Amino acid sequence: MSNIYAKFSMHKHNNPTSSPWEILGDMGFLETLIRITCVSVILSEFAVAVVGFTYPIARPNCSDRCGDMKIPYPFGLREGCYLDHNFFVNCTNSSEPFIPTHMIVKNISLHGQIDTLMYVARDCYEQGVKDYNNSTNPWLASPLNFTVSSTQNKFVVVGCDTVAYLVGYQQNERYATGCASVCESTRFMVYGSCTGVGCCEVDIPKGLKNVTMESHSFQNHTMVENFNPCGYALISKQDTFNFSIDSLRTLRDQQMMPMVLDWAIGNETCNDIENKSNYICGDNSSCQNSEDRSGYRCKCKDGYDGNPYLPTGCHGVGISFIVMLVCSSWLYLMVKQRKLIKLRQRFFEQNGGLILQQKLSKPENSTATAKIFTTEELKKATNNYDETLIIGRGGFGTVYKGLLLDNRIVAIKKSKTVDESQIEQFINEVVVLSQINHRNVVKLLGCCLETQVPLLVYEFIPNGTLFEYIHHKNKESTVSWEIRLRIAAETAEALSYLHFAASPPIIHRDVKSSNILLDSTHTAKVSDFGASRLVPLDQTQLATMVQGTLGYLDPEYMQTSQLTEKSDVYSFGVVLVELLTGEKALSFDKPEEERSLAIRFLSFLKDNRLFEILEKHIAKEGKAGQLKEVANLAKRCLRLKGEDRPTMKEVATELEGLRKMEMHSWVNVDSNSEETEFLLGETSDSCKYNASNKSTNVYDSVRDHVIFDLDDGR
Q1: Cβ neighbours of residue 91 under 8 Å, at least 6 residues apart?
Q2: Residue 381, phi then psi, degrees to nearest 5
Q3: How far is CA 348 from CA 341, 373, 380, 392, in A?
Q4: For strand 65-66 and strand 69-70, is the pairing parallel, antiparallel, or unpaired?
Q5: What residues does 65 pair with on adjacent strands?
Q6: Spatial separation of the C-alpha atoms in residues 140 and 166, rounded to whole Å
């Protein structure tokens, strides 16, 4: 990999009896360490005086404590001591003080957070009958500018027969998300991790308030009641909930869980409020916008400490304390750097770096272009993973926009977890994907293996996702039918390539409009292979845990756990329906029986009401016969049995034929002429499943568990 790793490896093997000081470094490092320690000791006497002095945090003549908890302004315990009624802390019971809407307060931070408690949602059953005494759907009415922290919390769902939703409001618009956990036993559960088996989790968006949690069951827990009679949903502060098998029962008695709220002042941004009389940031402080730019916070300037919300609350920090802090930090960083080098070497080996190097050096992989990036390269490319460079979030990780040193713009995927038992399969996938060179598949450029979870580097596609292009609330859906048909044909061609031309073949397993990117010319690029599976030629009977996105998930795969390439065909059928109707695959704002777009579309088609569900401008500009052909193709892709669906190769051929027909306006789509048959390729009957075709079950190269990703517009 690098000379650093080589140096450490040689040192370890050639000097087995090295002393601890020799491992840390040479004598120069030891001498520097001793000098810094001596200076720190001398300065500590001065620093004690500075540290021992505490600055006031409450208004004059106002109490700054409720029991053992500090109460800083703008919060207060009585009128005249707080900014407004939203910041009133009721200290009647000092062991459980609360703020408006009776939220119990555990801690208040001047950095804009409040530690509080939130009830757990439960959905319990006894012998298949719902136990209403133990079933709750809690809600939280947030005070003005108090929102559920997106950085400090997770939405967690626990159970083996459970689907749960988190519903709230984001910038005065309704927002819903959630996930599902399905399992038949505790066999595949992972202690301390919500992998999707018995426990799943999703991120919480910025600025969410007035939330409700709902927990529901698929089969009233009848199949799992002996070890899991209830399903649970909770908002939990990061690192406070550790999942275990015992959680399936102990959560029944857990009424509340720690949660963090973000708070801000007013509802105006810094630019709007700084020159107004009601601006409250004091001297030597600066204004910062809240994450969702609704309200602002105050912060003491560098070199100052105290309460920035008081007129003179920020005070200069003593110079001796600063010197001691710098010296200590210097010492800490030097030691940490040594440890970091060792840690990166361990991660590199643990993540299969040596295996990858060997595979890339083999003659049969001579065409592979995958590069092994260093941690520093990707940190620089993303400005240390700046949140403003985030271009996507999903069930498996976060995607950042990055700029490499050679000025190439890339997309860097930072995954959440990786199964250590399947590292070799993961490495195989990196090698295979790096060799794929198809104009409609996002190119994998390489990976970084020096972190706990590997990072993947892809080519950057500038125009966002097909989902945003069709559904974005700030963009009118004026995408022409001609462009939509081309995008559909290109996506089908890419999936056909993965199924039939890649070696080994690849099942994408998460085909959806948000995983189809559009470049500057609106050419489709299939992306996100985090859930993909390689098809080994020598395996035909291998069951898998269900994984995918609700609304796109193949019902046959969900029922049998048998994954084939026909699961991608079903998901692509849903994308076709999205292109025809302009509607989302799953809509929580509709009645339950109408939430699934696929089911609703098939119902309209059955009643000969196709043009009632088509997007208005598509129905006007598209040729009726052609629209019927595409709708019929979508219908065949959405058949319940995989064997009745066409292959992606047949789908791609038919769509390309329809595109050619669009380009040759003299052809009548309703005619039976030889030209029509030639342009359309194979007829509908020829798209029926051939029993001799491949329908193999395969291994998961990254993870092997149940998890559902609810896009809901994200």
Answers
A1: 66, 67, 71, 77, 97
A2: -65, -30
A3: 11, 11, 19, 26
A4: antiparallel
A5: 70
A6: 11
Picking from 465, 450, 467, the residue whose alpha carbon sits closest to that of residue 414 is: 450
d(CA 40, CA 660): 78
Residue with tokens 């991790």: 193
Q: What is the three-class DSSP state of 413?
A: strand
DSSP 628: H
Q: What is the CA radius of gyration of the chain?
A: 29
Please tell me the distance from the alpha carbon of residue 407 to that of residue 404, in angstroms, as a whole number. Answer: 5
Residue by residue, DSSP assigns 188-222 as T--TT---SSSEEEEPPPTTEEEEEEEEEESSTTT
d(CA 433, CA 435): 5
User: Which tokens go with 99?
Assistant: 């703020």
Task: Flag whether the pTM goes above 0.85.
Answer: no
Q: Per-residue b/e over 133-143, b at no fewer than 16 CB within 10 Å?
A: eebbbbebebb
What's the pLDDT tens digit per position in 159-172? 999 999 999 998 88
Is the CB of residue 307 less than 8 Å from the CB of residue 72? Answer: yes
Among residues 236, 174, 231, 228, the alpha carbon closest in space to that of 204 is found at 236
Q: Does position 646 have pLDDT exceeding 80, yes or no? A: yes
Cβ neighbours of residue 390 under 8 Å, at least 6 residues apart? 398, 399, 400, 401
Q: Which residues contact 595 (CB under 8 A, 6 or more apart)?
A: 586, 587, 588
Distance CA 178, CA 158 (A): 12
Query: What type of residue sits at position 382?
Result: T
Identity of residue 495:
L
Residues 6 or more apart in contact with residue 712 via CB below 8 angstroms: 175, 176, 177, 178, 584, 586, 588
Strand bridging mode 139-140 / 98-99: unpaired
In a 3-state reduction of DSSP, which class is residue 667?
coil
Catalytic-role residue among 510, 528, 554, 711: 510
Distances (CA, A) of 20 to 244, 276, 670: 38, 60, 83
* pLDDT value of residue 134: 87
Q: Is 685 a catalytic residue?
A: no
Q: Show Cβ contacts of residue 613 under 8 Å, excluding neighbours closer than 6 positions.
A: 580, 581, 583, 600, 601, 604
Nearest-5° angle of CA 432, CA 437, CA 438? 120
Closest listed residue to residue 234, CA positions, set 371, 397, 123: 123
| Whole-number Å distance between alpha carbons of 581 and 42 | 74
Query: pLDDT by residue (tens digit) across 22-37?
Result: 333 444 555 555 555 5
CA angle 561, 458, 392 (to 5 degrees): 70
Query: Closest by alpha carbon to 498, among 528, 520, 462, 518?
Result: 528
**CB atoms < 10 A from the CB of 74, how many?**
20
Residue listed under structure tokens 């001591």: 81
Secondary structure percentages of the chain, helix, strand, coil, to 5: 35, 20, 45
Dihedral of alpha carbons 29, 34, 38, 41, sign: positive
What's the CA gap between 686 and 650, in Å, rounded? 8
DSSP H stretches of helix in 231-318? 247-250, 270-273
- pLDDT tens per residue, range 651-671: 999 999 998 876 655 444 444
For the chain, how many helices (H) and strands (E)? 19, 32
Cβ–Cβ < 8 Å for 9, 344: no
Domains and CATH numbers, the chain: 7-53+332-344 (no CATH), 56-101 (no CATH), 113-263 (2.60.120), 352-459 (3.30.200.20), 466-708 (1.10.510.10)
